[in-house]
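Summary of Year 1 activities. Much of the first year was spent building the evaluation harness for sequence design. The harness presents a backbone, in tokenized form, and records the residue chosen at every position. We chose the following record to illustrate the format because it has been used consistently in internal testing since the harness was completed.
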């Protein structure tokens, strides 16, 4: 299936963003470990969160987490520390996403986990039991989801967990988000040195918990405002906090460099905070940034910069190669199809110096963007319609992984979406 997307002339709207997937998934695991009887409020309705909800509710013998990388990492640790035997599996892509770092760490704490296919990859057979807290050393440059998975089970261990993160620590805001949420549920967990996190065996306390809306989803509306580039238009986004712990909230500062101004507004009826976006008319001509702490924003900024003819040099992208797809190669391939040449270096940097090439088709409007079963490819490329007559997106339904109502929201603001089989 393919969508042909045509943008409206103006962009004036209020958007109810989806709840944060990152917070939802952590809250579900922590709440389950706390023995909470009430599920967190305002949960994300995306695919990744849905598989965790079903796994925790139905407790099936075999759990298929599909393409949800977060769910695979978090559920592996949760099941290892919880009584019962389960098989944890997913899509073919998931069966080629490495998990040995997490499995080795859990085994060191006493977990019983077997590989049912290729060594180091799902599917897994997990026999849950009470685990021991120990001093554990792990590379800081692995996925922060491995680290968060270990931290969240910390309060349930027989002794304290002392986690030493060696070398360069990536995606630190996601680790800090996990620690903050753990403490919200009563855990004793904190940084005790520059690279050491200590979690004491103090049980979680059940509580009501409300999920903030998603800054990652907000980034695509920032992108639309930057590309629409009309100073008279306003976009209002609901449920975003000025003091958010979400790492992707950095988007508001980065987009200020591309001309989008952010204003926080309190709701008159005591509802959630709102953000109002305006285009200032001023943008840098070159952008450099290290995405080590917010890699999920990389696709958004690659597409935005190229569509605005802003050259860039982005670093800290090493985790992009093990996401839903190899995002570095996917970005290079799809941009080349449109006539832009991105260079990569060592699998962790992307650069565009303005170099162009011949588009895949004589009329580049006939080029269709492949999404590689990766929601962020569709989410990030669709706003290019604001700088072109239209853009074609293949397999557009991949957005359900994190933003199920994306196309509906675009339709509501006047974006024309034509479907072709």
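For this record, the design step produced the sequence shown next.
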């Amino acid at each position: 299936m393919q969508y042909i997307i045509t943008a409206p002339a103006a962009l004036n709207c209020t958007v109810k963003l989806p709840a944060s997937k990152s917070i939802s998934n952590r809250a579900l695991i922590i709440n389950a470990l706390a023995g909470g009887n009430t599920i967190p409020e305002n949960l994300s309705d995306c695919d990744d969160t849905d598989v965790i909800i079903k796994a925790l509710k139905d407790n099936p013998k075999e759990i298929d987490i599909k393409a949800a990388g977060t769910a695979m990492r978090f559920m592996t640790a949760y099941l290892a520390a919880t009584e019962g035997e389960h098989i944890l599996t997913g899509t073919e892509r998931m069966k080629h996403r490495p998990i040995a770092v997490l499995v080795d760490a859990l085994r060191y704490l006493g977990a019983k986990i077997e590989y049912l296919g290729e060594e180091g990859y799902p599917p897994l057979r997990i026999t849950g039991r009470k685990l021991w807290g120990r001093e554990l050393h792990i590379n800081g440059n692995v996925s922060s989801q491995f680290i968060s998975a270990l931290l969240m089970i910390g309060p349930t261990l027989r002794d304290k967990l002392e986690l030493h993160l060696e070398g360069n620590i990536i995606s630190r805001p996601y680790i800090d988000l996990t620690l903050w949420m753990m403490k919200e549920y009563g855990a004793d967990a904190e940084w005790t040195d520059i690279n050491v996190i200590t979690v004491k065996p103090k049980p979680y306390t059940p509580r009501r918990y409300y999920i903030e809306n998603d800054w990652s989803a907000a980034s695509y509306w920032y992108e639309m405002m930057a590309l629409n580039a009309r100073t008279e238009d306003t976009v209002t986004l609901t449920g975003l906090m000025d003091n958010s712990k979400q790492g992707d909230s950095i988007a508001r500062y980065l987009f200020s460099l591309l001309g989008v101004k952010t204003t926080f507004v309190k709701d008159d009826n005591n509802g959630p905070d709102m953000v109002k976006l305006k285009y200032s008319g001023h943008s840098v001509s070159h952008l450099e940034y290290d995405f080590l702490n917010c890699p999920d924003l990389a696709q958004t900024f690659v597409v935005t910069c190229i569509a605005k003819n802003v050259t860039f040099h982005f670093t800290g992208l090493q985790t992009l190669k093990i996401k839903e797809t190899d995002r570095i190669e996917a970005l290079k391939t799809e941009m080349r199809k449109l006539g832009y040449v991105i260079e990569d270096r060592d699998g962790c940097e992307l650069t565009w110096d303005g170099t162009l090439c011949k588009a895949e088709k004589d009329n580049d409007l006939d080029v269709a963007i492949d999404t590689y079963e990766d929601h962020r490819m569709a989410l990030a490329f669709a706003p290019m319609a604001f700088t072109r007559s239209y853009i074609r997106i293949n397999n557009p339904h991949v957005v359900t992984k994190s933003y199920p109502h994306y196309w509906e929201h675009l339709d509501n603001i006047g974006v024309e979406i034509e479907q072709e089989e």
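The CA atoms of residues 222 and 260 lie 7 Å apart. Quantitative recovery figures across the full test set are reported in Table 2.
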